[in-house]
Amino acid sequence: MGWAKYWEDIEDAIVDSKYLSKLSNYTIHKKVELPIYSCAYCNLSFYSKVALYEHIRKNHNTVSDIVAVNGRIVNKECYVKSVSSLIVIRYDETTDIYINDNILTGYKGVNEVDLTAIVKDKLNNKENQIKISICNRDFYVKVISQEQIDNVKILLAIQQWSEDVVNGKDIKKCTNYTNYVEKRCLDGFYNYFVACVSTGKNKEHRYSDAFAILSEFSNILPAAKFLLKVISFKFNWIERLRLFSCDGDVFDMIYNFMVGKKCKKSISFNGDNKIFIEDELEEIIKVIINYQDDKGQDVDEFLKTYTLNAILQIEDSNQRDKICLLAARRSLHHKKVNESRRFYMEIQSPCFEGEVKEFIKNI
């Protein structure tokens, strides 16, 4: 069974809004001179805003206006501890924007409208909810606080669901909540545990739902932030893993592994609470820790059972890519270039594309 420990200290956390303060912000990668624009729906990146918008239209089935709060796209409503950015993107630049039913002026012809200062001012005036209206669509931004959530209740639910998964019992929804915020928080954890026991598309959808909901509680509940790291790692969402991994825990080491940086600092799962993670995730995390700690012999022992044909039989493409990456790097370490090349060429995740190209260029 897979278990992971995490710290449950309730304190302000550094969240991704510090890094992704605007949807239009970008980062410069060492080997790329062009700016990178990341899609807030998925993990893909683009070299222009035009390409990003076209991707959203085609792949996320929307041609409507976008409201992004703290770097995340809002479908209807979102819950945040505070607002660090609020951006409205209009495909029709003449569309009127309303805040709490009051029309905004001075933004005609502007594609990206930064409403951060306006919204912050309203929230500073003790308002705990903001409504933004565009083209007969209403988006709600609601401020939540730790006081609205009974942390003991959340921890008990996590413990119960973890034990139910281990014992093969049905995962039942929690009906013991005090308010809608608490209910939504519990729904996020519930989706995670259902994902652990699901298969096929339902597993992916449940993980996605859990990620979307728990993102709203990442700077309030350590358990929520921890699971965001787990899910980001599972799907090889490297950029999202970077945004959440700033706590000096095992996922700092994992992020470094994913981007090809060695880290000899020994880190393991620790903390005063534990939560269930899928067995294959627990296994690959331990192997990655060994790799980063220069315990190559242990990694090679793990890889003995994974010939290329065996790896290709793994249904989960993201898990398959992680093992291919390990095998490719270890083969290269042993100067087996042709073998390393075969493993590299089977990797599908776009996040490893740079390493694959660099390898091919140097052989």
Write a brief structural summary.
This protein has 363 residues and is of the alpha+beta class.
Structure description:
- The structure is a single chain.
- The protein is α+β, with helices and mostly antiparallel strands and 363 residues long.
- Helix content is 44%, strand content 14%.
- The protein has 14 helices and 14 strands.
- A five-stranded mixed sheet has the order 7-13-12-9-10. A four-stranded antiparallel sheet has the order 6-5-8-11.
- The two termini are 41 Å apart.
- About 7% of the residues have low confidence.
Topology:
Layout: E1 3-6, E2 26-27, E3 36-38, E4 45-46, H1 49-59, E5 66-69, E6 72-73, E7 77-80, E8 86-89, E9 97-99, E10 102-103, E11 112-114, H2 116-124, E12 129-134, E13 137-143, H3 151-166, H4 180-197, H5 200-214, H6 222-234, H7 238-244, H8 250-258, E14 273-276, H9 279-292, H10 296-303, H11 308-312, H12 317-333, H13 337-345, H14 353-362
Parallel strand pairs: 7-13
Antiparallel strand pairs: 1-14, 2-3, 3-4, 5-6, 5-8, 8-11, 9-10, 9-12, 12-13
What brief labels describe this structure?
363 residues, alpha+beta, 14 helices, 4-stranded antiparallel beta sheet, 5-stranded mixed beta sheet
Give the % helix. 40-55%
User: Largest sheet, if any?
Assistant: 5 strands, mixed
Distance between the termini: 41 Å
Structural class: alpha+beta
Shape: globular
Widest sheet, order of strands:
7-13-12-9-10
Estimate the strand proportion: 5-15%
> Topology as H/E string?
EEEEHEEEEEEEHEEHHHHHHEHHHHHH
Overall strand count: 14
Query: Uncertain segments of ≥5 residues (pLDDT<50)?
Result: 10-35
Mean pLDDT: 82
